[in-house]
Design brief:
The chain contains eight helices and four strands, in the order βααβααβααβαα. By secondary structure, the chain is α+β, with helices and mostly antiparallel strands. It has a single domain, classed as 2-Layer Sandwich (Alpha-Beta Plaits). It has a four-stranded antiparallel β-sheet with strand order 2-3-1-4.
Length: about 160
């Protein structure tokens, strides 16, 4: 099983889409392994978005992510990173396909509702920025056999 970080960004929180977004991930079969509401301080935002430092959109990105509380979520599941990113849709809401989170709820190219880790390495680094190890609960959910094919003993 794989862990990934998702942030429901300030526009998702302010538009009261927290439950709607989380429900989509849960309905897909991903497990919420950790969850918290936080106001990201500038220093943390700068560490999180360090790969974008120097790009023209960087100052606005930092200002945006610090402007309001966000919801930090660790999602766990088979291929969680790829599944989550597919569910989120294209980065720009105006280009995201219907059926994705951004395609259904975002039109702005700047306010795009959610962030998701893009690789196992990024997921590990990002999760560590927002959660202590003891805050992540990774026990197998009771419905795992109904979410995955476990006939061979392991979730498939």
């Amino acid at each position: 099983m794989e862990n990934t970080l998702v942030l429901i960004k300030p526009d998702g929180v302010q538009r009261r889409l927290i439950g709607t977004i989380l429900a989509r991930f849960e309905a897909k079969g991903l497990q919420i392994a950790a969850l918290k509401m936080i106001r990201i301080p500038k220093e943390l935002a700068e560490r999180h978005y360090a790969p974008h430092k120097g790009k023209p959109f960087y100052p606005g990105l930092i200002s945006y992510i610090c402007s309001s509380p966000v919801i930090g979520v660790v999602l766990r599941g088979r291929n969680a990173i790829a599944v989550t990113r597919g569910m989120m849709g294209a980065t720009f809401g105006s280009k995201a396909l219907p059926g994705t989170i951004r395609g259904d709820f975002a039109i702005s190219d700047g306010l795009n509702l959610v962030h998701g880790s893009d690789s196992p390495e990024a997921a590990a680094q990002e999760i560590a920025l927002y959660f202590r190890p003891e805050e992540i609960h990774a026990q197998a959910p009771a419905d795992q056999a109904w979410v995955y094919d476990c006939s061979g003993g392991s979730p498939v």
